[in-house]
Write a structure and sequence with these properties.
The protein is an alpha/beta fold and 281 residues long. It has eleven helices and eight strands. It folds into two domains: 79 residues, no CATH class; 178 residues, 3-Layer(aba) Sandwich (Rossmann fold), CATH 3.40.50. Helix 6 links the parallel strand 2 and strand 3. The structure holds S-adenosyl-L-homocysteine.
């Protein structure tokens, strides 16, 4: 298990956010959590995607969703620096509320919104996906790429359902097993970072049990990891390490990210990101 694993830390930080804030406020010295949090944000703020995905995949997922108009209200939860948020705004009508826990990501998205003149189309806010400042039946569409694992897929789709209008859509991408058995090394890796990973049929059943009709699911192609995500990481790692040259945690973190890339290359037949599109009944 990798202590600097981003997935684990994101989960832990959001679980402990209140405690963390208290610790930071009551202590002039930075806590370990605070320190890791800043480091990871710095790393991921340097790239414009914080998980596997691509514009083609966003476009494909969108193609299953009908009936959006300029009156539509869309949420993009765990938006990161918001590459897919911008693309959504450019592809569909309606207003998007993009939210993420990390203020640095939201700042970067705010800058891009201004640069592109999309202020009337997107509001970007800092919010914990566990306690969203949304009203019941506020949205026609809830979007979330590579982020729902932070509260667990099954829990997330259940919790967020109240924010959707009847007949509204949810579109989320989620790490999933592509086969029913797999080598121990990769099984152990995922059990340590996200034990809720499961086969596609199990995720679809969870969606159905949560009260959605599953409209579509599809496996994201390999380039969503290699070209659109890992390649961006490789490009910034040297500069990141040179900016943190005295910091062992930075080296450990980069090593864990590199390990994730090696594992993907070795075991990509067994797992991937899968998009699930559901409609609230
Ligand atoms: N959707 C983006 C980012 C995915 S990475 C993309 O596809 O590129 C997962 C995101 O979830 C990160 O931006 C992280 O900051 C965010 N996150 C982690 N825990 C969270 C929480 N409790 N509430 C909201 N966002 C959270």
């Amino acid at each position: 298990m990798y202590i600097y694993n981003y997935k684990t830390i994101g989960y832990r930080i959001s679980n402990n956010l209140k405690q963390l804030n208290k610790e930071i406020m009551s202590n002039d010295n930075k806590t370990i959590h605070d320190f890791q949090f800043e480091l990871i944000c710095d790393y991921f703020s340097r790239i414009d995607r914080q998980g596997p995905g691509s514009l083609d995949v966003t476009k494909k997922a969108l193609s299953f969703i009908t009936g959006l108009s300029e009156k539509s209200r869309i949420a993009d939860i765990g938006c990161g620096t918001g590459k897919q948020t911008i693309y959504l705004a450019q592809s569909v009508e309606g207003h998007i509320t993009a939210s993420d826990l990390f203020p640095g990501f939201i700042d970067r998205l705010q800058n891009n919104i201004k640069k592109l003149g999309l202020q009337n189309r997107i509001s970007a806010i800092v919010a914990d996906m566990k306690e969203l400042p949304f009203s019941d039946e506020q949205f026609d569409l809830i979007w979330s790429e590579g982020a729902i694992y932070n509260i667990g897929f099954e829990n997330g789709i259940k919790q967020w359902k109240k924010y959707l209008k009847p007949g509204g859509y949810i579109a989320v991408s989620e790490a999933s097993w592509l086969t029913t058995s797999r080598p121990k090394e990769i099984e152990d890796y995922w059990m340590a970072s996200y034990p809720e990973i499961d086969v596609i049929s199990a995720k679809i059943a969870q969606m159905e049990q949560a009260g959605y009709k599953c409209i579509a699911s599809f496996i994201e192609p390999e380039e969503c990891w290699t070209k659109e995500y890992f390649a961006l990481q490789s490009e910034i790692e040297e500069a990141f390490l040179s900016d943190h040259s005295n910091n062992q945690a930075a080296f450990d973190f980069v090593a864990s990210e590199q390990n994730e890339r090696l594992l993907y290359e070795k075991y990509k037949d067994y797992y991937g990101y899968v998009f699930y599109i559901g409609k609230k009944l």
